[in-house]
Amino acid sequence: MTTTASNPRETSAGLTTTRAPFIEQAKSEGRLYIEQPYELYTPANHDAWRRLYARMADRWQKYANHRFLQGIENLCLDPMHVPPLEAVNRFMAPLTGFRAKAVSGYVPAYMFFDCLRQREFPTTITIRDGEVLDYLPEPDIFHDIAGHVPMHTDKAFADTLVLFGECARAAAERAQVVADEHERVRRMTSVIKAMARFFWFTIEFGLMKGTRPGELKAYGSGLLSSYGELEHCIESPDVQRWPFQLEWVVNQSFEIDHYQPLLFVVDSFDHLFSEVGRLADWVTAGKLDNVSPGEPAISATDLASFLGAAT
Ligand SMILES: [Fe+2]
Question: Rounded to the nearest whole angstrom, what is the distance from the C-alpha of residue 184 to the centroid of ligand 1?
């Protein structure tokens, strides 16, 4: 006799990160772009969102860039429930054209940047387990919607993301003209590494000058979605904070499993936009073909996504 009883932990998991049967099913069928099956969120999923949101509110007021705070207001996020992406997009799209697009998992680097170019933001729909609010190696909907998306309501920031996408496209096209395959792979790996570092030290972990002398505010989503690190990045004497320098950033390795010991400060969103423009110029000029080795490692999937993009 066989039994068909499901694992009760699994059936009650709803859309909990790493334990969502819906996501596993989508992955097994090779579906990256998915819908958000809102009815699958459990009371525990909504409760995790509520608790994450509630404890961030004061810290955002204290440490977040004012455009992020404006974005939170513009999105009318519900502090009590995981947001339906449809509702988020209803408020966001009229402001900058950006839309959150549900995905089942990791989006290969080129596809991710190309989504940005088309004003689409690949968005994780699962939420972390309420038992472990602080530590999560994977992205979740709190990181993506409460950390990233408020910035996407700002026109200058949204245009910066689109320019990132243009930069990726230029990098992919440029690689096609390198005849020698080994050299093409080597250069492409270097350029992707440089772009990943730039993205990490700005969009994910960027700091910006505040309005008062000496004041710093966070605009990077990794900071804005972390209760502990948002305070640490501004207050801790253990963090090095340096004016943004493109030469440094593209050559600086980073690790993802602890608070960042080194952060870079931009003057303004116009400054950030102009630095992404310089990054694109450096791609075209071949100045990123030999960046410093080290983290992040570039996966075969990410490399293939760039090399296959222009064909
Ligand atoms: Fe992120």
Answer: 28
CA atoms of 166 and 162, how far apart (whole Å) = 6
Residues 79 and 50: beta-carbon distance below 8 Å? yes
Centre of ligand 1 from the C-alpha of residue 181, in Å: 32
Homologous superfamily in CATH for domain 16-307: Aromatic amino acid hydroxylase (1.10.800.10)
Angle between helices 85-96 and 66-75 in degrees, nearest 10? 120
Report CA dihedral (112, 115, 117, 119) to the nearest 10 degrees: -130
User: Whole-prediction pTM value?
Assistant: 0.93
Calculate how far, in angstroms, residue 237's C-alpha sits from the geometric centre of ligand 1: 25
CB 71 within 8 A of CB 152: yes
The pLDDT tens digits of the residues spanning 213-256 come to 999 999 999 999 999 999 999 999 999 999 999 999 999 999 98
Domain limits of the chain? 16-307
Structure-token pair, residue 144:
């993506």
Low-confidence ranges of the chain (pLDDT < 70): 1-11, 135, 310-311
Alpha-carbon distances, residue 189 vs 26, 120, 147, 167, 170 (angstroms): 29, 25, 28, 15, 14
